[in-house]
Amino acid sequence: MTAHRTLADREDVLGALMLAPALAYVILLVGVPFGFAILLSFSDATAGSLHFGWAGLRNYAAILGDPIFLRALKNSAIVTVGSQLLVVIIATAAAQVLRATFRGKRLARFVLLLPWAVPVSLIVQAWRIFPFATVIVLAGLSSIPQEIVEAAIVDGAGFWRRLFQVELPLLLPVVAVAVLFGVVYTATDLGVVYILTGGGPANTTHVLPTLAFQRGILGADLGQGAAIAVFLLPFLVVVAVAMLRLARHTEVGAR
Amino acid sequence: MAGIEIRNLRKHFGDLHAVDGVTLSIHDGEFLVLLGSSGSGKTTLLRMIAGLERPTSGEIHIGDQRVDGDVPPRARGIAMVFQSYALYPHRTVFQNIAFPLEASRTPRKQIEEKVRWAAELFSISRYLDRYPRQLSGGERQRVALCRALVRDPKVFLLDEPLANLDAKLRNTARDDLKRFQRRIKTTTVYVTHDQVEAMGLGDRIVVMERGKVRQIGTPQEVYEEPVDTFVATFVGQPPMNLLEARDPALPGRTLLGFRPEHFLPKGVFGPSDDTRPFRFAVRRVEYLGSDRYVYGSVVEAGAAPGEVTIIAKLPATIALPIPEGETHEFAVPRRALRYFDADTGLKRAP
Protein backbone atom coordinates (compact mmCIF):
# COMPACT_ATOMS: atom_id res chain seq x y z
CA MET A 1 0.00 0.00 0.00
CA THR A 2 1.53 3.29 -1.08
CA ALA A 3 1.06 6.07 1.43
CA HIS A 4 1.16 8.97 -1.02
CA ARG A 5 -1.17 9.77 -3.85
CA THR A 6 -0.55 7.83 -7.04
CA LEU A 7 -1.51 8.89 -10.53
CA ALA A 8 -4.77 7.00 -10.20
CA ASP A 9 -5.78 9.18 -7.26
CA ARG A 10 -5.24 12.43 -9.11
CA GLU A 11 -8.39 12.78 -11.13
CA ASP A 12 -7.42 16.12 -12.63
CA VAL A 13 -4.20 14.80 -14.15
CA LEU A 14 -5.71 11.45 -15.02
CA GLY A 15 -8.66 13.10 -16.74
CA ALA A 16 -6.48 15.30 -18.89
CA LEU A 17 -4.25 12.36 -19.70
CA MET A 18 -7.11 10.16 -20.83
CA LEU A 19 -8.72 12.91 -22.86
CA ALA A 20 -5.47 13.76 -24.64
CA PRO A 21 -5.54 11.12 -27.42
CA ALA A 22 -9.09 12.02 -28.45
CA LEU A 23 -8.23 15.71 -28.33
CA ALA A 24 -5.09 15.18 -30.40
CA TYR A 25 -7.11 13.21 -32.92
CA VAL A 26 -9.72 15.93 -33.30
CA ILE A 27 -7.16 18.72 -33.51
CA LEU A 28 -4.86 17.01 -35.98
CA LEU A 29 -7.46 15.42 -38.27
CA VAL A 30 -10.31 17.91 -38.02
CA GLY A 31 -9.05 21.17 -36.59
CA VAL A 32 -5.86 21.60 -38.61
CA PRO A 33 -7.37 20.73 -42.02
CA PHE A 34 -10.33 22.93 -41.18
CA GLY A 35 -8.12 25.91 -40.35
CA PHE A 36 -6.05 25.16 -43.41
CA ALA A 37 -9.15 25.10 -45.63
CA ILE A 38 -10.22 28.50 -44.38
CA LEU A 39 -6.72 29.82 -44.97
CA LEU A 40 -6.68 28.34 -48.48
CA SER A 41 -9.98 29.96 -49.32
CA PHE A 42 -8.31 33.34 -49.01
CA SER A 43 -5.38 32.36 -51.21
CA ASP A 44 -4.62 31.83 -54.86
CA ALA A 45 -2.90 28.52 -54.17
CA THR A 46 -3.09 25.90 -56.89
CA ALA A 47 -2.61 22.18 -56.77
CA GLY A 48 0.79 21.04 -57.86
CA SER A 49 2.67 24.14 -56.79
CA LEU A 50 3.94 25.40 -53.48
CA HIS A 51 3.04 28.97 -54.28
CA PHE A 52 0.80 30.63 -51.69
CA GLY A 53 -0.43 34.15 -52.38
CA TRP A 54 -2.99 36.21 -50.55
CA ALA A 55 -6.16 36.61 -52.57
CA GLY A 56 -8.45 38.28 -50.06
CA LEU A 57 -12.11 37.80 -50.83
CA ARG A 58 -11.56 37.25 -54.52
CA ASN A 59 -12.36 33.54 -54.36
CA TYR A 60 -15.64 34.23 -52.63
CA ALA A 61 -16.55 36.96 -55.07
CA ALA A 62 -15.82 34.60 -57.93
CA ILE A 63 -17.96 31.73 -56.72
CA LEU A 64 -20.85 33.92 -55.63
CA GLY A 65 -21.04 35.25 -59.15
CA ASP A 66 -20.87 31.76 -60.59
CA PRO A 67 -24.23 30.19 -61.57
CA ILE A 68 -22.78 26.70 -61.26
CA PHE A 69 -21.88 27.34 -57.64
CA LEU A 70 -25.30 28.78 -56.87
CA ARG A 71 -26.88 25.75 -58.48
CA ALA A 72 -24.67 23.46 -56.37
CA LEU A 73 -25.58 25.38 -53.24
CA LYS A 74 -29.26 24.95 -54.00
CA ASN A 75 -28.78 21.28 -54.82
CA SER A 76 -26.99 20.72 -51.52
CA ALA A 77 -29.84 22.25 -49.59
CA ILE A 78 -32.51 20.32 -51.51
CA VAL A 79 -30.74 16.97 -51.28
CA THR A 80 -29.95 17.35 -47.60
CA VAL A 81 -33.30 18.64 -46.41
CA GLY A 82 -35.29 16.42 -48.74
CA SER A 83 -33.44 13.23 -47.95
CA GLN A 84 -33.66 13.83 -44.20
CA LEU A 85 -37.37 14.55 -44.39
CA LEU A 86 -37.82 11.32 -46.29
CA VAL A 87 -35.61 9.47 -43.84
CA VAL A 88 -37.53 10.67 -40.80
CA ILE A 89 -40.87 9.65 -42.30
CA ILE A 90 -39.76 6.28 -43.63
CA ALA A 91 -37.63 5.43 -40.61
CA THR A 92 -40.47 6.23 -38.20
CA ALA A 93 -42.86 4.12 -40.22
CA ALA A 94 -40.36 1.27 -40.43
CA ALA A 95 -39.66 1.41 -36.71
CA GLN A 96 -43.40 1.15 -36.02
CA VAL A 97 -43.61 -1.90 -38.24
CA LEU A 98 -40.52 -3.49 -36.75
CA ARG A 99 -41.78 -2.96 -33.24
CA ALA A 100 -44.98 -4.87 -33.87
CA THR A 101 -44.76 -8.59 -33.40
CA PHE A 102 -45.36 -10.70 -36.48
CA ARG A 103 -43.99 -13.81 -38.07
CA GLY A 104 -40.72 -13.25 -39.87
CA LYS A 105 -39.99 -10.12 -37.85
CA ARG A 106 -36.36 -11.09 -37.43
CA LEU A 107 -35.98 -11.61 -41.15
CA ALA A 108 -37.68 -8.31 -41.91
CA ARG A 109 -35.37 -6.51 -39.53
CA PHE A 110 -32.36 -8.13 -41.12
CA VAL A 111 -33.39 -7.29 -44.68
CA LEU A 112 -34.33 -3.72 -43.82
CA LEU A 113 -31.13 -3.02 -41.99
CA LEU A 114 -28.98 -4.78 -44.55
CA PRO A 115 -27.87 -1.67 -46.49
CA TRP A 116 -25.46 -1.07 -43.64
CA ALA A 117 -23.37 -3.86 -45.03
CA VAL A 118 -23.91 -3.18 -48.70
CA PRO A 119 -21.45 -0.92 -50.54
CA VAL A 120 -22.83 2.60 -50.37
CA SER A 121 -21.80 3.53 -53.88
CA LEU A 122 -25.02 2.25 -55.44
CA ILE A 123 -27.48 3.67 -52.95
CA VAL A 124 -28.92 7.11 -52.74
CA GLN A 125 -28.54 9.28 -49.68
CA ALA A 126 -31.86 8.57 -48.03
CA TRP A 127 -31.54 4.86 -48.45
CA ARG A 128 -28.09 5.11 -46.97
CA ILE A 129 -29.15 6.89 -43.81
CA PHE A 130 -32.48 5.11 -43.53
CA PRO A 131 -31.32 1.96 -41.72
CA PHE A 132 -29.32 3.98 -39.23
CA ALA A 133 -32.23 6.32 -38.62
CA THR A 134 -34.58 3.36 -38.22
CA VAL A 135 -32.34 1.87 -35.56
CA ILE A 136 -32.28 5.19 -33.74
CA VAL A 137 -36.04 5.67 -33.92
CA LEU A 138 -36.59 2.07 -32.86
CA ALA A 139 -34.36 2.63 -29.85
CA GLY A 140 -36.26 5.83 -29.11
CA LEU A 141 -39.60 4.03 -29.32
CA SER A 142 -38.51 1.37 -26.89
CA SER A 143 -37.39 4.07 -24.48
CA ILE A 144 -40.96 5.38 -24.22
CA PRO A 145 -42.39 3.82 -21.06
CA GLN A 146 -44.92 1.13 -21.91
CA GLU A 147 -47.35 2.52 -19.33
CA ILE A 148 -47.53 5.86 -21.13
CA VAL A 149 -48.47 4.19 -24.38
CA GLU A 150 -51.02 2.06 -22.55
CA ALA A 151 -52.42 5.11 -20.78
CA ALA A 152 -52.97 6.68 -24.20
CA ILE A 153 -54.74 3.51 -25.37
CA VAL A 154 -56.99 3.47 -22.32
CA ASP A 155 -57.60 7.21 -22.73
CA GLY A 156 -59.14 6.35 -26.06
CA ALA A 157 -56.45 7.57 -28.43
CA GLY A 158 -56.31 5.74 -31.76
CA PHE A 159 -53.15 4.90 -33.68
CA TRP A 160 -52.66 8.31 -35.33
CA ARG A 161 -53.40 10.32 -32.20
CA ARG A 162 -50.96 8.16 -30.26
CA LEU A 163 -48.36 8.58 -32.98
CA PHE A 164 -48.63 12.33 -33.38
CA GLN A 165 -49.52 13.43 -29.87
CA VAL A 166 -47.66 10.96 -27.70
CA GLU A 167 -44.98 8.97 -29.44
CA LEU A 168 -43.52 11.50 -31.88
CA PRO A 169 -43.25 14.32 -29.32
CA LEU A 170 -41.50 11.93 -26.97
CA LEU A 171 -39.27 10.80 -29.83
CA LEU A 172 -38.31 14.34 -30.77
CA PRO A 173 -34.97 14.49 -28.94
CA VAL A 174 -33.91 11.20 -30.47
CA VAL A 175 -35.11 12.12 -33.95
CA ALA A 176 -33.31 15.47 -33.69
CA VAL A 177 -30.03 13.71 -33.09
CA ALA A 178 -30.69 11.30 -35.96
CA VAL A 179 -31.46 14.23 -38.26
CA LEU A 180 -28.34 16.07 -37.14
CA PHE A 181 -26.21 13.07 -38.01
CA GLY A 182 -28.03 12.70 -41.31
CA VAL A 183 -27.61 16.35 -42.25
CA VAL A 184 -23.90 16.41 -41.55
CA TYR A 185 -23.44 13.10 -43.27
CA THR A 186 -25.41 14.07 -46.35
CA ALA A 187 -24.26 17.65 -46.72
CA THR A 188 -20.60 16.72 -46.60
CA ASP A 189 -20.90 13.63 -48.74
CA LEU A 190 -18.94 13.57 -51.96
CA GLY A 191 -19.27 9.97 -53.06
CA VAL A 192 -22.88 9.56 -54.05
CA VAL A 193 -23.20 12.49 -56.44
CA TYR A 194 -19.66 12.16 -57.71
CA ILE A 195 -20.20 8.53 -58.64
CA LEU A 196 -23.78 8.75 -59.85
CA THR A 197 -23.59 11.85 -62.05
CA GLY A 198 -20.18 13.38 -61.55
CA GLY A 199 -21.98 16.71 -61.25
CA GLY A 200 -23.22 16.55 -64.81
CA PRO A 201 -24.82 16.92 -67.19
CA ALA A 202 -23.50 20.42 -67.74
CA ASN A 203 -22.73 20.95 -64.03
CA THR A 204 -26.42 20.87 -63.07
CA THR A 205 -26.29 18.22 -60.36
CA HIS A 206 -23.31 19.42 -58.35
CA VAL A 207 -23.49 19.70 -54.61
CA LEU A 208 -20.97 21.72 -52.65
CA PRO A 209 -18.54 18.86 -51.95
CA THR A 210 -18.43 17.69 -55.58
CA LEU A 211 -18.01 21.21 -56.89
CA ALA A 212 -15.29 21.91 -54.36
CA PHE A 213 -13.55 18.73 -55.40
CA GLN A 214 -13.87 19.55 -59.10
CA ARG A 215 -12.60 23.11 -58.78
CA GLY A 216 -10.05 22.54 -56.06
CA ILE A 217 -8.51 19.21 -56.93
CA LEU A 218 -9.38 18.39 -60.53
CA GLY A 219 -9.30 22.05 -61.58
CA ALA A 220 -6.24 22.65 -59.38
CA ASP A 221 -7.69 25.90 -57.96
CA LEU A 222 -7.21 25.10 -54.30
CA GLY A 223 -8.30 28.55 -53.14
CA GLN A 224 -11.66 28.50 -54.84
CA GLY A 225 -12.26 24.86 -53.94
CA ALA A 226 -11.67 25.70 -50.29
CA ALA A 227 -13.96 28.72 -50.48
CA ILE A 228 -16.77 26.53 -51.82
CA ALA A 229 -16.29 23.96 -49.10
CA VAL A 230 -16.25 26.62 -46.39
CA PHE A 231 -19.81 27.53 -47.42
CA LEU A 232 -20.98 24.34 -45.73
CA LEU A 233 -19.94 25.75 -42.39
CA PRO A 234 -22.69 28.32 -41.63
CA PHE A 235 -25.31 25.94 -42.96
CA LEU A 236 -24.16 23.07 -40.71
CA VAL A 237 -23.67 25.29 -37.69
CA VAL A 238 -27.25 26.51 -37.90
CA VAL A 239 -28.59 22.98 -38.27
CA ALA A 240 -26.46 21.63 -35.44
CA VAL A 241 -27.41 24.39 -33.01
CA ALA A 242 -31.10 24.11 -33.89
CA MET A 243 -31.18 20.34 -33.50
CA LEU A 244 -29.24 20.25 -30.27
CA ARG A 245 -31.44 22.95 -28.79
CA LEU A 246 -34.52 21.02 -29.85
CA ALA A 247 -33.19 17.82 -28.33
CA ARG A 248 -32.28 19.51 -25.10
CA HIS A 249 -35.51 21.44 -24.71
CA THR A 250 -37.82 18.54 -25.32
CA GLU A 251 -35.82 16.45 -22.92
CA VAL A 252 -36.29 18.96 -20.16
CA GLY A 253 -39.97 19.13 -21.01
CA ALA A 254 -40.37 22.91 -20.92
CA ARG A 255 -40.69 24.76 -24.17
CA MET B 1 -72.45 2.82 -13.57
CA ALA B 2 -71.99 -0.86 -13.97
CA GLY B 3 -70.95 -4.03 -12.25
CA ILE B 4 -68.41 -6.47 -13.64
CA GLU B 5 -68.94 -10.19 -14.20
CA ILE B 6 -65.90 -12.38 -14.71
CA ARG B 7 -66.39 -16.05 -15.59
CA ASN B 8 -63.69 -18.69 -15.57
CA LEU B 9 -61.13 -16.24 -16.89
CA ARG B 10 -57.70 -17.54 -17.88
CA LYS B 11 -54.55 -15.99 -19.23
CA HIS B 12 -51.63 -18.17 -20.18
CA PHE B 13 -48.21 -16.86 -21.15
CA GLY B 14 -46.72 -20.02 -22.60
CA ASP B 15 -46.55 -22.45 -19.70
CA LEU B 16 -47.24 -19.79 -17.12
CA HIS B 17 -50.87 -19.61 -16.05
CA ALA B 18 -50.90 -16.00 -14.89
CA VAL B 19 -54.63 -16.04 -14.31
CA ASP B 20 -55.95 -19.54 -13.82
CA GLY B 21 -59.71 -19.73 -13.87
CA VAL B 22 -61.03 -16.70 -12.00
CA THR B 23 -64.76 -16.24 -11.45
CA LEU B 24 -65.73 -13.00 -9.81
CA SER B 25 -68.73 -10.78 -9.53
CA ILE B 26 -68.09 -7.11 -8.79
CA HIS B 27 -71.13 -5.14 -7.71
CA ASP B 28 -72.19 -1.82 -9.10
CA GLY B 29 -70.49 0.96 -7.11
CA GLU B 30 -68.31 -1.41 -5.14
CA PHE B 31 -64.69 -0.77 -4.16
CA LEU B 32 -63.06 -4.12 -4.77
CA VAL B 33 -59.42 -4.76 -3.92
CA LEU B 34 -57.33 -7.43 -5.63
CA LEU B 35 -54.71 -8.39 -3.07
CA GLY B 36 -51.74 -10.63 -3.76
CA SER B 37 -47.98 -10.75 -3.93
CA SER B 38 -46.14 -10.16 -7.19
CA GLY B 39 -46.86 -12.95 -9.62
CA SER B 40 -50.27 -13.67 -8.13
CA GLY B 41 -51.99 -12.59 -11.35
CA LYS B 42 -53.79 -9.59 -9.88
CA THR B 43 -52.34 -7.09 -12.35
CA THR B 44 -52.91 -9.40 -15.31
CA LEU B 45 -56.54 -9.71 -14.23
CA LEU B 46 -56.87 -5.93 -14.08
CA ARG B 47 -55.23 -5.53 -17.48
CA MET B 48 -57.66 -8.00 -18.98
CA ILE B 49 -60.59 -5.99 -17.62
CA ALA B 50 -58.97 -2.88 -19.12
CA GLY B 51 -58.49 -4.58 -22.48
CA LEU B 52 -54.71 -4.23 -22.46
CA GLU B 53 -54.36 -8.00 -22.29
CA ARG B 54 -56.45 -10.51 -24.18
CA PRO B 55 -57.79 -13.48 -22.18
CA THR B 56 -56.83 -16.98 -23.25
CA SER B 57 -60.36 -18.04 -22.36
CA GLY B 58 -63.29 -17.00 -20.21
CA GLU B 59 -65.72 -14.09 -20.17
CA ILE B 60 -65.70 -10.51 -18.95
CA HIS B 61 -68.89 -8.47 -18.81
CA ILE B 62 -68.92 -4.79 -17.92
CA GLY B 63 -72.49 -3.72 -17.29
CA ASP B 64 -74.49 -5.62 -19.88
CA GLN B 65 -71.72 -5.57 -22.46
CA ARG B 66 -69.49 -8.58 -23.06
CA VAL B 67 -65.99 -7.21 -23.62
CA ASP B 68 -63.52 -10.12 -23.58
CA GLY B 69 -63.46 -10.41 -27.39
CA ASP B 70 -62.56 -7.57 -29.68
CA VAL B 71 -63.78 -4.62 -27.65
CA PRO B 72 -60.87 -2.14 -27.47
CA PRO B 73 -60.11 -0.35 -24.17
CA ARG B 74 -61.64 2.92 -25.37
CA ALA B 75 -65.03 1.24 -25.91
CA ARG B 76 -65.18 -0.42 -22.50
CA GLY B 77 -66.11 2.63 -20.48
CA ILE B 78 -63.12 2.22 -18.21
CA ALA B 79 -60.45 4.55 -16.90
CA MET B 80 -57.17 3.40 -15.49
CA VAL B 81 -54.55 4.83 -13.16
CA PHE B 82 -51.12 3.27 -13.51
CA GLN B 83 -48.55 2.67 -10.84
CA SER B 84 -46.15 5.14 -12.49
CA TYR B 85 -49.16 7.45 -13.17
CA ALA B 86 -48.04 7.41 -16.84
CA LEU B 87 -48.54 11.14 -17.28
CA TYR B 88 -47.54 12.52 -20.67
CA PRO B 89 -44.26 14.31 -19.86
CA HIS B 90 -44.44 16.68 -22.84
CA ARG B 91 -47.93 17.95 -21.95
CA THR B 92 -48.95 20.32 -19.21
CA VAL B 93 -51.26 19.18 -16.43
CA PHE B 94 -54.17 20.76 -18.30
CA GLN B 95 -53.24 19.00 -21.52
CA ASN B 96 -52.82 15.72 -19.66
CA ILE B 97 -56.28 15.87 -18.18
CA ALA B 98 -57.75 17.06 -21.47
CA PHE B 99 -56.21 14.23 -23.48
CA PRO B 100 -59.00 11.63 -23.10
CA LEU B 101 -61.58 14.33 -23.84
CA GLU B 102 -59.74 15.37 -27.00
CA ALA B 103 -59.61 11.72 -27.99
CA SER B 104 -63.38 11.48 -27.69
CA ARG B 105 -63.74 14.70 -29.71
CA THR B 106 -65.39 16.69 -26.95
CA PRO B 107 -65.99 20.35 -27.90
CA ARG B 108 -63.22 22.74 -26.75
CA LYS B 109 -65.40 24.67 -24.38
CA GLN B 110 -66.66 21.56 -22.65
CA ILE B 111 -63.11 20.24 -22.28
CA GLU B 112 -62.10 23.46 -20.61
CA GLU B 113 -65.01 23.27 -18.15
CA LYS B 114 -64.47 19.64 -17.34
CA VAL B 115 -60.75 19.93 -16.75
CA ARG B 116 -61.27 22.88 -14.42
CA TRP B 117 -64.01 21.03 -12.54
CA ALA B 118 -61.84 17.94 -12.02
CA ALA B 119 -58.78 19.99 -11.07
CA GLU B 120 -60.89 21.84 -8.53
CA LEU B 121 -62.10 18.55 -7.06
CA PHE B 122 -58.54 17.36 -6.48
CA SER B 123 -57.19 20.84 -5.58
CA ILE B 124 -54.64 20.96 -8.37
CA SER B 125 -56.05 24.02 -10.15
CA ARG B 126 -52.86 25.91 -9.39
CA TYR B 127 -50.77 23.43 -11.34
CA LEU B 128 -52.69 23.34 -14.61
CA ASP B 129 -49.91 25.09 -16.55
CA ARG B 130 -47.08 23.04 -15.12
CA TYR B 131 -45.39 20.00 -16.56
CA PRO B 132 -45.55 16.67 -14.71
CA ARG B 133 -41.85 16.76 -13.81
CA GLN B 134 -42.48 19.98 -11.88
CA LEU B 135 -44.92 18.23 -9.55
CA SER B 136 -44.43 16.11 -6.44
CA GLY B 137 -45.44 12.45 -6.34
CA GLY B 138 -48.71 13.18 -4.57
CA GLU B 139 -49.64 15.90 -7.08
CA ARG B 140 -48.85 13.64 -10.01
CA GLN B 141 -51.05 10.97 -8.53
CA ARG B 142 -53.93 13.43 -8.32
CA VAL B 143 -53.37 14.51 -11.92
CA ALA B 144 -53.60 10.85 -12.94
CA LEU B 145 -56.87 10.51 -11.00
CA CYS B 146 -58.22 13.66 -12.68
CA ARG B 147 -57.35 12.30 -16.09
CA ALA B 148 -59.23 9.13 -15.25
CA LEU B 149 -62.19 11.00 -13.80
CA VAL B 150 -62.97 13.31 -16.72
CA ARG B 151 -63.87 10.38 -18.93
CA ASP B 152 -66.93 9.64 -16.77
CA PRO B 153 -65.99 5.97 -16.74
CA LYS B 154 -68.31 3.17 -15.72
CA VAL B 155 -65.39 1.51 -13.97
CA PHE B 156 -62.16 2.76 -12.39
CA LEU B 157 -59.16 0.48 -12.61
CA LEU B 158 -56.32 1.39 -10.26
CA ASP B 159 -52.99 -0.41 -10.41
CA GLU B 160 -51.10 0.22 -7.15
CA PRO B 161 -51.64 3.98 -7.39
CA LEU B 162 -50.18 4.63 -3.94
CA ALA B 163 -47.11 2.41 -4.21
CA ASN B 164 -44.81 5.25 -5.28
CA LEU B 165 -45.77 7.62 -2.49
CA ASP B 166 -43.87 7.89 0.77
CA ALA B 167 -45.46 6.28 3.81
CA LYS B 168 -46.81 9.50 5.33
CA LEU B 169 -48.41 10.72 2.14
CA ARG B 170 -49.86 7.29 1.50
CA ASN B 171 -52.14 7.57 4.52
CA THR B 172 -53.72 10.85 3.42
CA ALA B 173 -53.87 9.71 -0.19
CA ARG B 174 -55.68 6.56 0.91
CA ASP B 175 -58.21 8.59 2.82
CA ASP B 176 -58.70 10.99 -0.12
CA LEU B 177 -59.18 8.10 -2.49
CA LYS B 178 -61.78 6.41 -0.33
CA ARG B 179 -63.76 9.61 0.23
CA PHE B 180 -63.60 10.38 -3.46
CA GLN B 181 -64.89 6.93 -4.42
CA ARG B 182 -67.73 7.14 -1.90
CA ARG B 183 -68.72 10.45 -3.41
CA ILE B 184 -68.78 9.50 -7.08
CA LYS B 185 -69.95 5.90 -6.41
CA THR B 186 -68.21 4.45 -9.43
CA THR B 187 -67.30 0.76 -9.45
CA THR B 188 -63.60 0.55 -8.63
CA VAL B 189 -61.13 -2.29 -8.98
CA TYR B 190 -57.95 -1.65 -7.06
CA VAL B 191 -54.81 -3.75 -7.26
CA THR B 192 -52.32 -3.82 -4.41
CA HIS B 193 -49.84 -6.05 -2.63
CA ASP B 194 -50.21 -3.98 0.53
CA GLN B 195 -52.65 -5.61 2.93
CA VAL B 196 -53.04 -2.45 4.99
CA GLU B 197 -54.27 -0.62 1.87
CA ALA B 198 -56.52 -3.55 1.03
CA MET B 199 -58.08 -3.65 4.48
CA GLY B 200 -58.49 0.11 4.66
CA LEU B 201 -59.94 0.69 1.19
CA GLY B 202 -61.86 -2.36 0.11
CA ASP B 203 -65.56 -2.98 0.49
CA ARG B 204 -64.45 -6.49 -0.34
CA ILE B 205 -61.03 -8.05 -0.80
CA VAL B 206 -60.09 -10.73 -3.30
CA VAL B 207 -56.99 -12.59 -2.11
CA MET B 208 -55.12 -14.06 -5.07
CA GLU B 209 -52.27 -16.49 -5.29
CA ARG B 210 -50.67 -18.06 -8.37
CA GLY B 211 -53.49 -17.02 -10.67
CA LYS B 212 -56.25 -18.32 -8.45
CA VAL B 213 -58.69 -16.65 -6.08
CA ARG B 214 -58.15 -17.93 -2.55
CA GLN B 215 -60.83 -15.94 -0.79
CA ILE B 216 -63.35 -13.20 -1.44
CA GLY B 217 -64.83 -11.33 1.48
CA THR B 218 -65.06 -8.15 3.48
CA PRO B 219 -61.83 -7.10 5.21
CA GLN B 220 -63.27 -8.46 8.43
CA GLU B 221 -64.15 -11.85 6.94
CA VAL B 222 -60.77 -12.23 5.30
CA TYR B 223 -58.97 -11.32 8.50
CA GLU B 224 -61.09 -13.20 11.01
CA GLU B 225 -62.25 -16.19 9.01
CA PRO B 226 -59.45 -17.04 6.57
CA VAL B 227 -60.45 -19.99 4.41
CA ASP B 228 -56.98 -21.52 4.38
CA THR B 229 -53.49 -21.22 5.81
CA PHE B 230 -52.34 -19.11 2.84
CA VAL B 231 -54.84 -16.34 3.53
CA ALA B 232 -54.28 -16.73 7.28
CA THR B 233 -50.59 -16.00 6.95
CA PHE B 234 -50.78 -13.55 4.03
CA VAL B 235 -53.23 -11.17 5.67
CA GLY B 236 -52.26 -9.71 9.03
CA GLN B 237 -48.99 -8.37 10.31
CA PRO B 238 -47.43 -10.28 12.01
CA PRO B 239 -49.16 -13.26 10.35
CA MET B 240 -51.48 -15.71 12.10
CA ASN B 241 -49.66 -18.26 14.25
CA LEU B 242 -50.05 -21.84 13.03
CA LEU B 243 -49.31 -24.69 15.39
CA GLU B 244 -49.81 -28.42 15.08
CA ALA B 245 -52.43 -29.34 17.68
CA ARG B 246 -51.56 -32.29 19.91
CA ASP B 247 -55.09 -32.51 21.19
CA PRO B 248 -56.84 -35.91 21.40
CA ALA B 249 -60.19 -34.12 21.15
CA LEU B 250 -59.33 -32.93 17.60
CA PRO B 251 -58.96 -35.02 14.43
CA GLY B 252 -55.32 -35.90 13.60
CA ARG B 253 -53.15 -33.49 11.59
CA THR B 254 -54.97 -30.36 12.63
CA LEU B 255 -53.32 -26.95 12.71
CA LEU B 256 -54.35 -24.47 15.34
CA GLY B 257 -54.42 -20.90 14.14
CA PHE B 258 -54.53 -17.76 16.28
CA ARG B 259 -53.71 -14.12 15.72
CA PRO B 260 -50.69 -12.70 17.64
CA GLU B 261 -52.93 -10.11 19.31
CA HIS B 262 -55.04 -12.90 20.84
CA PHE B 263 -52.00 -14.70 22.29
CA LEU B 264 -51.56 -12.99 25.66
CA PRO B 265 -50.22 -13.69 29.13
CA LYS B 266 -52.68 -15.84 31.05
CA GLY B 267 -53.04 -13.25 33.80
CA VAL B 268 -54.69 -10.84 31.37
CA PHE B 269 -57.76 -13.05 31.11
CA GLY B 270 -60.44 -13.29 33.79
CA PRO B 271 -61.35 -16.61 35.42
CA SER B 272 -64.64 -16.76 33.50
CA ASP B 273 -62.94 -16.48 30.07
CA ASP B 274 -62.88 -19.69 28.12
CA THR B 275 -59.22 -19.92 27.11
CA ARG B 276 -56.74 -22.50 25.91
CA PRO B 277 -53.48 -22.23 27.85
CA PHE B 278 -50.00 -22.59 26.32
CA ARG B 279 -46.57 -22.70 27.89
CA PHE B 280 -44.57 -20.13 25.93
CA ALA B 281 -40.75 -20.24 25.90
CA VAL B 282 -39.83 -16.61 25.19
CA ARG B 283 -36.77 -16.11 23.02
CA ARG B 284 -36.82 -12.40 22.33
CA VAL B 285 -38.96 -9.33 22.99
CA GLU B 286 -39.23 -6.53 20.42
CA TYR B 287 -40.31 -3.15 21.74
CA LEU B 288 -42.24 -1.20 19.06
CA GLY B 289 -43.73 1.66 21.04
CA SER B 290 -47.44 0.96 20.76
CA ASP B 291 -46.85 -2.81 20.89
CA ARG B 292 -44.43 -5.45 22.05
CA TYR B 293 -43.77 -8.42 19.77
CA VAL B 294 -42.77 -11.49 21.77
CA TYR B 295 -41.01 -14.26 19.83
CA GLY B 296 -40.73 -17.80 21.15
CA SER B 297 -42.05 -21.31 20.89
CA VAL B 298 -44.78 -23.30 22.54
CA VAL B 299 -43.69 -26.05 24.97
CA GLU B 300 -45.87 -29.15 25.06
CA ALA B 301 -46.00 -31.13 28.32
CA GLY B 302 -42.91 -33.32 28.70
CA ALA B 303 -41.47 -32.38 25.29
CA ALA B 304 -38.72 -30.09 23.99
CA PRO B 305 -39.87 -26.62 22.83
CA GLY B 306 -41.48 -26.78 19.39
CA GLU B 307 -39.58 -25.55 16.35
CA VAL B 308 -42.31 -23.29 15.01
CA THR B 309 -41.81 -19.64 15.92
CA ILE B 310 -44.87 -18.21 17.59
CA ILE B 311 -45.41 -14.48 17.94
CA ALA B 312 -47.43 -12.67 20.56
CA LYS B 313 -48.45 -9.06 20.03
CA LEU B 314 -48.92 -7.29 23.35
CA PRO B 315 -50.45 -3.81 23.33
CA ALA B 316 -48.65 -1.19 25.38
CA THR B 317 -51.55 -1.33 27.85
CA ILE B 318 -50.17 -4.64 29.13
CA ALA B 319 -47.24 -3.56 31.26
CA LEU B 320 -46.39 -7.00 32.60
CA PRO B 321 -42.62 -7.63 32.35
CA ILE B 322 -41.74 -10.56 30.03
CA PRO B 323 -38.10 -11.61 30.66
CA GLU B 324 -36.35 -13.22 27.68
CA GLY B 325 -35.19 -16.83 27.96
CA GLU B 326 -37.91 -17.85 30.41
CA THR B 327 -41.08 -19.85 29.99
CA HIS B 328 -44.37 -18.05 30.64
CA GLU B 329 -48.02 -19.00 30.93
CA PHE B 330 -49.90 -17.66 27.89
CA ALA B 331 -53.42 -18.31 26.62
CA VAL B 332 -55.73 -17.78 23.65
CA PRO B 333 -59.51 -17.24 23.98
CA ARG B 334 -61.20 -20.28 22.45
CA ARG B 335 -63.44 -18.14 20.26
CA ALA B 336 -60.29 -16.75 18.60
CA LEU B 337 -58.93 -20.19 17.70
CA ARG B 338 -59.13 -21.34 14.07
CA TYR B 339 -58.59 -24.87 12.80
CA PHE B 340 -56.97 -25.96 9.54
CA ASP B 341 -56.28 -29.29 7.88
CA ALA B 342 -52.50 -29.69 8.02
CA ASP B 343 -52.43 -31.53 4.67
CA THR B 344 -54.73 -29.40 2.50
CA GLY B 345 -54.35 -26.15 4.41
CA LEU B 346 -58.10 -25.68 4.29
CA LYS B 347 -60.15 -24.42 7.17
CA ARG B 348 -62.06 -27.06 9.11
CA ALA B 349 -64.60 -27.06 11.89
CA PRO B 350 -63.17 -27.60 15.41
Please provide a written account of the structure.
The complex is a heterodimer of chains A (255) and B (350). By secondary structure, chain A is an all-alpha fold. Chain A has one domain (66-252): MetI-like (MetI-like fold), CATH 1.10.3720.10. In chain A, 72% of the residues lie in helices and 0% in strands. Chain A is built from 11 helices and no strands. Chain A has helices at 11-41, 58-64, 67-99, 105-113, 125-143, 146-154, 159-187, 191-196, 208-218, 222-230, 232-252. In chain A, helix 1 crosses helix 10 (222-230) and helix 5 (125-143) packs across helix 7 (159-187). Chain A starts with 10 loop residues before the first helix and ends with a helix. Helices cover 24% and strands 32% of the residues of chain B. Chain B starts with a strand and ends in a 9-residue tail after the last strand. In chain B, helix 3 (108-121) packs across helix 4 (137-149). Chain B is elongated, with a radius of gyration of 24 Å. Chain B has 8 helices and 18 strands. The model of chain B has no long low-confidence stretch (mean pLDDT 90). Chain B has helices spanning 42-50, 93-103, 108-121, 137-149, 167-184, 195-201, 219-224, 229-234, and strands spanning 4-13, 16-26, 31-35, 57-62, 65-66, 78-81, 155-159, 187-192, 204-209, 212-217, 241-244, 254-258, 264-265, 275-287, 291-299, 310-315, 327-333, 338-341. Chain B has 350 residues and is α+β, with helices and mostly antiparallel strands. Chain B folds into 2 domains: 4-234, Rossmann fold, CATH 3.40.50.300; 241-341, OB fold (Dihydrolipoamide Acetyltransferase, E2P) (Beta Barrel), CATH 2.40.50.140. Chains A and B meet through helix 6 and helix 7 of A and strand 6 and helix 2 of B.
